[in-house]
Amino acid sequence: MTDRSVLVSGGGVAGATVAYWLARAGWSVTIVERADGTRSSGNPVDVRGEAVAIARQMGIWPRLEEAATGVNRLTFVDADGRPRASIRTHKPGDHHEEVELARNELVDLLLDKARESTLIIPHDSITVLHEDSGGIDVEFERTPSRRFDLMIGADGVHSTVRRLAFGPEEHFSRPFGMFVGTVQAPLQIEDPLTVLMYNEPGTSLSIHPAGGKPGFAFIFRGQHNFDYRDPEHGRRLVESTYASGGWLTTLALKAWGASDDRYFDEVTRVDVPQWSAGRVVLLGDAASCISLFGDGSSSAIVGAQTLADAITAYPDNHTAAFAHYQQKHRKHIRPLRRGAGISSRLLVPKTRAGIILRNGVLNTLPFRNKQQTVPPSSGT
Length: 380
Prior knowledge:
By secondary structure, the chain is of the alpha/beta class. Helices cover 34% and strands 27% of the residues.
């Protein structure tokens, strides 16, 4: 099958995983990635559920366990840093069933596997797609144009492939009414197994131990006309929103303002009714997600294998392959999307009464020490 070629736009979790499985099935695979190296986000993400078996099949599970943060508890504190409520995020000793690790470490491991049999075009992006009955001609910003049989858009919430093949971003995404910013935290962590989170109505500030590389996360509610391409806009939004906060807010804002390696974006609900158009198919956050609250990394791994299996099963019929992939993976992500509202209300209550109620519930109900499906970090 070496004469069959596929271009994957995006070298993140979804893109690297689908590239690995398609190359293993005999396809000639190319990844084009805009970022310089792997994406810089060190935000913690989870690999769990069906994604664990896939990671084992890829031979990377022992490496994931080595890179795990070990965090297993989320503790809510008041303005003076005193604990007010706590909840387990992982059961002690369950690292054989799921792991949390930095997103960039996960991407590094997946890309290392993909590189074994995949061509990677770094520092470049797609500009034009021309499809005909026999394939797709792709033009790039820097690389000479090339022709492929199939095109996979695994390039995230702000997907270029989706814009070129399906239409403008605003047709498929809408604000969730929340924002998230992260930055490294220049301080020592006393408890490497616990995330600490402080709430004011509509905002949260957390510090995650992140395996010895602690980071602050700002998660807050709001309605703003936000342009993700303007980094200064995100910087100002965080500074204005947290100007009068307590606990470690002053230190966090100082780190935020001084860093040149910040992450900021709007929490976005992406929903593309039809994930394929001709020979182009979307994968991961480009197709369907609620960024931050959608268990995105595990879902991306599962979706990538589902797509690769479908293409392998229907090598001469991409329409059937894409339809099979969409039908199967939509069933997988449906409950994850439903849980996003619950997670957001737990992590960022809208009112002070909501904060008090949440803490009271966690302190009185017996499930407070059991594993929950609430993300303790800002990663996906």
